[in-house]
Design brief:
The protein has one domain: paralog of FGE (formylglycine-generating enzyme). The chain is about 20% helix and about 15% strand. It contains eight helices and 14 strands. Strand 7 and strand 8 form a beta hairpin. The chain starts with a helix and ends with a helix.
């Protein structure tokens, strides 16, 4: 989470603490050296696989029949966290045809009075659990409600420094995506953003659904296709046609908007995949229920085939070893050929569970059994 990075930068002014941090991080890294020997938990019960829907389709959801596929990628464009490719089998389920929208999330808030993480002051006691020991507490004003907003610079910048285009903005939340003074008026059909994991899980429970596992999400995003680089085939823009919302031009300062959108697009703007799912690639990142572990695929690949994986039992990201993170999938309107190529089904990113960002939303799934009881 970038706010964690900001706090780490703040704490780095104390050289004694830096030495302590290096020692602690080394201990964490040592502890995880043997992580590839761990096993990824799987559901061992018999599973339902069916091309034909079972029961009546829940409103706004499409049938994903389940089956076997190759998860991850060994392609040269894939990051280390996407490797190795390995066999997975998943059960059938229902999935939201598009990302949860502002209108849908508003109904949840009006029915429950729920306040998102971005609308609450930062709990320092919880935050410091994710930081190196003895990190000093920031000023109270730093801990006020807010979220991360994309603020493009006017000129080229060092692409290794994401603070050049991300800003922590007090007052930024799902109702005010750019901060105070901004709104979602006339944007009911846009994906809701600035959603932390806790927020997405709360909505899913209220709706009688759940968040997808990483394997379910990746299977669905492929639309029944084989292990091709992009959800729709081997080319990013076949016949110069844009099939998803991502960044064109010079990242992060010059978006040429060739796909028609400078930021998020209304849901269902781009063509659906063969399952009838919209915006599985690009637009906004989407939460999965899996903990992020950099070696998760290596762990799963120890099995000939993994059945209904639910991910590792804990998270580990060497870049922020103290933070609890979950996997997000699909890329967003900020994915660029120059900076990242996460507009691919196999792409995966680690995000702190308490993170809200302008390009992060979600969609839900429902089990076959749950649907049959309705």
């Amino acid at each position: 989470m970038l706010v964690l990075a900001c706090l780490l930068i703040f704490a780095a002014s104390c050289s004694k603490k830096q030495d302590s941090t290096e020692k602690t991080e080394n201990k964490v890294t040592d502890k995880n050296k043997g992580s590839q020997k761990q096993e990824t938990p799987v559901k061992q019960a018999s599973i339902i696989i069916s091309e034909e829907p079972i029961g009546e389709a829940p409103k706004g959801m499409v049938w994903i029949g389940g089956g076997e596929f190759v998860m991850g990628s060994d392609h040269t464009s894939a990051s280390q966290a996407e490797k190795p490719a390995h066999r997975v089998k998943i059960a059938a389920f229902w999935m939201d045809e598009h990302e949860v929208t502002n209108a849908q999330f508003r109904k949840f808030v009006e029915a429950t009075g729920y306040k998102t993480v971005a609308e609450r002051p930062i709990d320092w006691e919880e935050m410091k659990k994710q930081l190196p020991p003895n990190t000093p507490k920031p000023e109270d004003e730093v801990l006020q409600p807010g979220s991360l907003v994309f603020t493009p610079p006017p000129n080229p910048v060092n692409l290794q420094d994401y603070s050049q285009w991300w800003s922590w903005v007090h007052g930024a939340d799902w109702k005010h995506p750019k901060g105070p003074g901004s709104s979602i008026e006339d944007k009911d059909n846009y994906p809701v953003v600035h959603i932390a994991y806790e927020d997405a899980a709360a909505y899913a429970k209220w709706a009688g659904k759940r968040l997808p596992t990483e394997a379910e999400w990746e299977f669905a995003s492929r639309g029944g296709g084989k292990n091709q680089p992009f959800a729709w085939g081997d080319e990013l823009t076949p016949q110069n046609k844009y099939l998803a919302n991502f960044f064109q031009g010079d990242f992060p300062y010059n978006n040429t908007v060739d796909d028609g959108f400078n930021a998020a697009a209304p849901v269902k703007t781009f063509p659906p995949n063969d399952y009838g799912l919209y915006d599985m690639i690009g637009n906004v990142w989407e939460w999965s229920s899996d903990f992020y572990h950099i070696n998760a695929h290596a762990m799963a690949a120890q099995n000939d085939i993994t059945i209904c994986p639910t991910g590792p039992t804990s998270s580990y990201d060497p870049n922020e070893p103290f933070a609890e993170k979950r996997v997000i999938k699909g890329g967003s309107f900020l994915c660029s050929e120059q900076y990242c190529s996460n507009y691919r089904p196999s792409a995966r990113m680690a995000t702190s569970t308490d993170s809200g960002q302008e390009h992060l939303g979600f969609r839900c799934v429902r089990d076959v059994e749950t649907n049959q009881k309705m």
